[in-house]
Amino acid sequence: MKYRCLLFDLDHTLWDYETNSREALTDLFREYQLQEKGIDNREFINTFEKINNEMWDLYDRGLLHRDAIRNERFHKILLTHSIDDYGLSLRISHDYLIHSPKKKNLMEGCREILDYLFPKYPMVIVTNGFDEIQSTKLSSSGITHYFKDVITSARAGFKKPAKEIFEFALQQNGFSAPDALMIGDNLLTDMAGAQNAHIDTVYFNPMNLKHNSPVTFEIGKLTQLKQLL
Fold first, then answer.
1. Helix, strand, coil abundance in the chain, percent, nearest 5
2. Is 181 helix (H, G, I), strand (E, B) or coil?
């Protein structure tokens, strides 16, 4: 295969955001005794996932500042459960950002495919995630050593899907667009973003979601990368 460098998204692609988030939310549900406030743990998690996904989508589209996610996410969740306590929401948000990145769950096949690719390709993380917690996620899950570099939107000065973050990642590591392949789960930020920079793509689609977006390759399991690379 012609590629000389692999770019990877982190959350939902390698690091199992859903499982790690649910574990952290369950811990916080117990710590803050939210059951005594009339909240069910499953409803708390479901509400978080709905509101969190909506806010991240707005952020990815440039319609929301990232600080709003930190400062407003849990307030919106508590309001859904008829609790108007902004101070409590900020405390939960603070602790969530501490506990969640320390969770260790990886997507199925992640370590196997990284072991396979590591001797063959330099690999770089390209992420819109909060700058200060990405290294924690990588180290907690034990995959830091696989990656030559970690490019965050804060470091690059641009966020996916802007082509500049991909160009920055390539420039920092001595590669050009034809050398690279971007692997990610998000059609907007990962796939369209990489295409904006003329980089080939692999859409990681474990849920087999229907779409009409042009991608170079599509996989349902990370280990299918062995067939491409």
1. 55, 15, 30
2. strand
